[in-house]
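Quick one, tokens below. Sequence please?
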């Protein structure tokens, strides 16, 4: 999550002035899937004109996306939505893991 939150600070909020809001939310989508969202109120970008949404051009962001796919498979990953002037949402989708206490 660190490279994504850092990216929100560096690229998303430098020009807006005022208060910066970065929210991090985590929730179970179902019994098998965990969703982590990093949402900022920054300047956003046009996903149709920008390669950022498709290629995830930042090295840290690309690394996160690649590692999720390699570790968990193609049904998981990093998905970005953004609106100019309204902010960006980076959504990490990974398998939900549970741990049982050692009963021994």
């Amino acid at each position: 999550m660190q490279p994504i939150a850092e990216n929100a600070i560096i690229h998303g909020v430098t020009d807006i002035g005022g208060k910066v809001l970065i929210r991090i939310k985590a929730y179970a989508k179902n019994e098998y899937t965990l969703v982590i969202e990093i949402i900022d109120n920054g300047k956003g970008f046009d996903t149709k004109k920008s390669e950022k949404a498709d290629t995830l051009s930042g090295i840290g962001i690309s690394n996160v996306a690649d590692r999720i796919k390699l570790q968990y498979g193609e049904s998981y990953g990093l998905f970005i939505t953004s609106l100019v002037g309204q902010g960006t949402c980076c959504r990490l989708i990974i398998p939900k893991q549970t741990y049982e206490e050692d009963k021994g």
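The longest helix spans residues 59-72. The radius of gyration is 15 Å.
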